[in-house]
Predict the structure.
Amino acid sequence: MAIFSKTCEYAMRAVFYVAQRSHEGYRVGIREIAEHINSPEPFLAKILQKLSREGLIQSVKGPNGGFYFDTASLNRPLADIVTAVDGDEIFTGCGLGLTYCSESNPCPLHDEFKKVRNQITHMLNNTSIGKFNMGLIKGKFTLNK
Amino acid sequence: MAIFSKTCEYAMRAVFYVAQRSHEGYRVGIREIAEHINSPEPFLAKILQKLSREGLIQSVKGPNGGFYFDTASLNRPLADIVTAVDGDEIFTGCGLGLTYCSESNPCPLHDEFKKVRNQITHMLNNTSIGKFNMGLIKGKFTLNK
DNA sequence: ATAATAAAAGATATTTTTGTCTTTTATTAT
DNA sequence: ATAATAAAAGACAAAAATATCTTTTATTAT
């Protein structure tokens, strides 16, 4: 088991790729995205449709259409993508899966697990969708395989 | 999506419960465990069978039988349970699900995600199976719902 | 030895996640 | 207006995770 679902992994990779291409002035078709982030094209399409419906990514149909990010969207935190796709369980859930685990009624792992959750929350809130554009353009980072 | 699989959550809760009862000198039947940690009994049985096969938990069949931990097992880290049940992806996997992500070929989240993984690894390696026995006996912690 | 107990093992079922295919709708260029 | 393009939507399929049921095996107490 990975931390994020496949769906969420694909979403994050796609978002970084589209952000980079947006930064370079392009819109990107679903095929190009899927190829570059190594994901199943029709499945990724579903994911991006969902993000699009929620206004997290922009898209236009037709020739020269595709997905892109406007400036406002580029500045959104990655956390918004994760929440849209996987919900907020990762930010708030109990490590042992206990619904009623809380400060006043803690599970054994509560205190230590809170640190993990906080780290994840910090990571996702402090990473904007466009944060890695330059790094990606310069080939500093990988997004496929 | 939670951090750990349902299977793993049940395993961790069960292990803490059995440890506590072991500490009090009892063996515990699968029904009692399932009731106290609020998990489906036959499914939990499968999980404990697996842990038993790997020698992580002790069991005896027949009257007065059940699951328990010997002293050596009580001192094992929770990480061993997680690994047995969910594998080691949570300790080593890339946040974006990239197989070839590494120090030399990092994904955009690599550095930040490493901190998350380290926190999880630390938590699971520094939590022994028997660590919360007294806290559980004194009612300081919850394991059900 | 026998009966009762409880885990182990095997087979099966359901649900969720992941993945695919087809049709429709919107946009653009001609 | 028409044809070409590309996303949106809907229906469907496969795989994995979760859950259940039945039979077998080992142990204990009588």
